[in-house]
Design brief:
The chain is α+β, with helices and mostly antiparallel strands. 46% of the residues lie in helices and 24% in strands. The longest helix has 29 residues.
């Protein structure tokens, strides 16, 4: 998945890039459901672009589809499984419908917490592909 963004800060080989909403060159045929707001992503800058990159430059960044798939799978699948485990536990212990509701909600919350914790360790490594427009300071 490729997005166009603007460099907000740049130091120590890391750049904060704000993704620009509605970049038609890359979004025309894509149904990935990207956010329309400016999402800020921390990107490691390759050595080849490090000298010419500055704050305000528009860049093309790429986030590997495999990383996005792994992250979304963990975020959606794990809480759903723990929700059903909560329902199963309530049925096994005979807690009734109210117990089933409460245990499923507890399972869902536990699943969300675990999924968010795991998602921090799923490595999404965006990279800068190209500098589209350089801002020259006078």
């Amino acid at each position: 998945m490729q997005r166009v963004g603007k460099v907000i800060t740049f130091r120590n080989k890391l750049a904060e890039v704000s993704c620009l909403p509605g970049t038609p060159a890359f979004c025309k045929n894509c149904n990935k459901g990207c956010s329309e707001s400016g999402v800020v992503i921390l990107v490691e800058v390759p050595e080849s672009l490090g000298r010419e990159l500055s704050v305000g430059d528009e860049v093309v960044i790429e986030i590997p589809d495999k990383s996005v798939f792994k992250s979304s799978t963990v975020l959606f699948f794990l809480p759903t499984c723990t929700l059903f485990l909560g329902i199963l536990a309530a049925e096994m212990f005979g807690w009734g419908s109210l117990g089933s509701l409460v245990s499923s909600l507890i399972g869902l919350v536990i699943g969300i917490v675990i999924a968010l914790t795991i998602n921090k360790f799923v490595i999404i490594k965006p990279r800068i592909l190209d500098v589209l427009m350089e801002v020259k300071l006078l």
